[in-house]
Every structure is written in C-alpha cells, then in structure tokens.
Design brief:
Layout (H helix, E strand, L loop, with lengths): L1 E6 L2 E6 L9 H14 L7 H14 L6 H14 L2 H14 L1 E3 L2 E3 L20 H15 L7 H15 L13
Antiparallel strand pairs: 1-2, 3-4
Helix pairs in contact: 1-2, 1-3, 3-4, 3-5, 5-6
C-alpha cells in the first residue's frame, strides 16, 4: 500500500508491504508508526501520539495475531512505552517455539517442518520477519536491555542466523 502525505511541510512517501499474512489496519498502522519513529520523529508529534493511542487500544485486544503482536511490541519499544512492550513480549514468549536452544515464532496452523535427507528446511519469510521484530523489541529498551532479555534475545538470534541461505541472505526482504 502506498500513500503520499505532507508531514511538517515535507512530503513523505510511504510504501508498506505486509508480508506476514496479516493485512489489517493495526498492522499497517504499526508498520507506519515504526517507520516514522525510526526516522526519528518525536513521540510528541500529534501524528505519532494519535497512532500510538490507536495501537495501545488495539494491543488490549485478545485476538491479535502473533505477527501483529511482534509489530506492536517493537513500535512500543521505539516509543519508549516499556510497560506495553513488556506485556506484549510476555504474551509472545508464551507462544514461542523453543527447540534446540533457539526461539522463534510461527503462524498459527502452520504445517510441521519437512524432515528430508539432504534438505535443510528454512522458515517462510513471515516467520523470519515476525521473529526479527520480536528480537528488535527485546533489544530496543530504555535503559539498556536486562541480562535476562539479552540472554533470551541470543536464542532468537541463533534461530534467525540458522535461516540464512548459502549466500548469507534470508527468504525475507524485511
């Protein structure tokens, strides 16, 4: 989805591709808010404040998809809303797939991995992306992440690094 908006007299062109299979207003709002906070635009800007208000309201809904929770956690981390970030990360931790010393997230109803000889399974881009957003949320903390958060983040990083293809890239473009 693309949009051309005037922001403080400057034209801002937003191009958002929702890869995680979640195509809703909450995810799109989170993507755009993340992009604006990474510029960085101040949290005090009315556009950002309004977006964060919408995201805070949406974060309280129980039916949020794992991918949406990952985006929300990172958006709140960038905005310095550590209580909201922690609540979402706690919820995400309960949904994590923990195996072989690594941690990742996958979409609900996903087919089990195929175990074939001479074939190394790599997760679809949606799993790589949402796991990467959770990692960003863990590492984006004010003050710095705790030792416990860094330890958990290292297990996430282990899984992500295992998803690299032989050329060092990933299935995800995010």
């Amino acid at each position: 989805k693309t949009e051309d908006k005037k922001l403080g007299g400057v034209s801002v062109y937003l191009c958002v591709s929702v890869q995680g299979g979640v195509d809703n207003e909450v995810s799109l709002t989170a993507y755009i808010t993340i992009a604006l906070l990474e510029v960085p635009l101040p949290v005090t800007l009315s556009l950002i404040r309004n977006a964060l208000f919408c995201l805070e309201t949406a974060a309280d809904q129980k039916e949020n998809h794992v991918y949406t929770k990952a985006l929300l956690a990172y958006a709140f981390a960038l905005a310095g809303k550590m209580d909201k970030r922690k609540t979402l990360l706690d919820s995400l931790e309960k949904e994590a797939v923990k195996e072989d010393g690594s941690v990742h997230w996958q979409r609900p109803g996903k087919e089990p991995e195929v175990d074939l000889p001479y074939y190394r399974y790599r997760a679809p881009s949606a799993e790589v992306e949402m796991t990467a957003y959770v990692l960003l949320a863990y590492l984006t903390s004010q003050p710095a992440p705790s030792q416990e958060e860094l330890s958990f983040a290292s297990h996430i990083a282990k899984w992500i690094s295992g998803q690299q293809n032989p050329n060092g890239g990933f299935s995800s473009t995010q």
